[in-house]
Amino acid sequence: MAFGRDRERPPLDGVDVVLSDLDGVVYAGSGALPHAVESLLRASVGGRRLGYITNNASRTDAAVAAHLRELGLAETRPGDVVTSPQAAMRLLRERVPAGATVLVVGGEGLVVEVEKAGFGVTRSADDAPSAVVQGFAPEVGWTDLAEAAYALKLPEEQGGIPWIATNTDWTIPQSRGIAPGNGTLVSAVHTAVGRLATVAGKPETPIFEEAVARFGSRHPLFLGDRLDTDIAGAQAAGIPSALVLTGIDRPKHVLAAPPTSRPTYILGDLRELFEPYPRTRVEGDVVRVGAARVRIDGADLRIDDPGDRPIDLVRAGAAAVWNSGRAIFGFHVAEQLYADPFDRP
Fold first, then answer.
1. Which three-class secondary structure string do you get for 61-91?
2. Where are the domains positioned within the chain?
3. In sequence order, what are the residues at sequence separation of 6 or more whose Cβ sits closer than 8 angstroms to the Cβ of residue 59?
């Protein structure tokens, strides 16, 4: 969190490019999340650019851009969308010869990028592929996973072929709730063959590096809804980040975030990008954010004053735990700190 600043500034202050995750930040399923589209349009006023980073490998950049235009982000073009399949192609080019045949486990978004990169596509291990590339698609089934397992039966150090996963997100937000993500499918293959995939998307850095380079950004801000992929990846890439509580991770996850997954900002929704971000004031064992005050009392994390904004209470609780150097399981946490009044799918 942004500790010790001289004045309270909005998270967007000085930002030249907003890089946003999609699922859980802009939309859930096909529908826009509350306040997301209006806030992003407002963020683009004055020449600030908008870019989108997605681990979802099931759709092409063109399809994602069309979806965003339908939601009201009318200026979005395919080049504004950085996908995990695009990051995977960077890794693939480093590992296999140009024009090689690749076994693809995934949907159109992945197939299109493999073909654009000049590789041949197969769905069968019998075609002696030079690598396996795996990404999420709703239609991926047992047969697809089995073909990947057959192709990956030997470890690379024993002459086996490379295995690149676009991402390993365990879950994906949908309009009906939270569904299994690509990580569950990659784990199924891992269980069968005892190998680990090389990951191209978040939380690894190639996808962030591609985005920063594409937009020529000097002062980006990344928006995400997951600590373990979005925030950890931005932190590893040296990019300031904002966690928005409209997707996967909730206040209890924020309090428990390890040092490698702590956002610069915590937002209830994207409208707060434009609000002065309150300073975190530490006074002995008391942490104050706005009117919210949280105190560490031995093994107890107590609320002295919940304040008038739930988001400030989350910020104060997180700062208290993070500054303590102790893990969340070392505290008895006031129940209200785990409350979850924030919009989500």
1. HHHHHHHHHHHCCCCCCHHHEEEHHHHHHHH
2. 17-83+203-274, 85-199, 280-338
3. 67, 107, 108, 109
Residues 6 or more apart whose Cβ sits within 8 Å of residue 182: 55, 57, 134, 135, 136, 165, 166, 167, 168, 169, 172
Residue of 6, 13, 16, 23 marked catalytic: 23
21 is catalytic: yes
pLDDT at 172: 82
Q: How far is the C-alpha of 82 from the C-alpha of 98, rounded, in Å?
A: 22
Handedness of CA 95, 100, 103, 106 (dihedral sign): positive
Q: What is the pLDDT of residue 345?
A: 56
> What amino acid occupies position 116?
K
Strand order in the sheet with 292-297: 280-283, 286-289, 292-297, 300-305, 332-333
- 3-state helix, strand, coil split of the chain in percent (to 5) is 35, 20, 40
Helices and strands, number each (H, E), in the chain: 10, 20
Q: Which CATH class is domain 17-83+203-274?
A: alpha beta
- Which residue ranges in the chain fall short of pLDDT 70? 1-7, 343-345
Record: fold of 85-199: Rossmann fold (3.40.50)
- pLDDT, residue 175, reads 77
* pLDDT for res 197: 96
Tell me whether residue 305 is one of the annotated catalytic residues: no
CA 192 remoteness from chain centre: 27
Position 6 scores a pLDDT of 45
Q: Which of 21, 80, 249, 312 is catalytic?
A: 21
Torsion sign over Cα 230, 264, 240, 269 = positive
Cis omega (within 30 of 0) for bond into 78: no
